[in-house]
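Posting for a labmate who doesn't have an account.
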Amino acid sequence: MHPGGWSITSRSDTEVIQVLRGAARITDADGTVHLLRPGTVHVFPLGWSGRWDIDETIRKVYVTVEGL
């Protein structure tokens, strides 16, 4: 994922990621900010809304599951 930002309104799946390299910020709809750095594991639950902001190109491993 390359530098930039975008909003997501209500995920239709659950996604689990592990960041391998780079840096990003995730902001939940309630304003909570999560910093993603190498080694970070983060779960985006079904229905999650918020914003991605990529500071440095990131490489991640991810799994998405419908309906969880």
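Reply:
Got it, the structure tokens are right above this. The longest strand covers residues 50-66.
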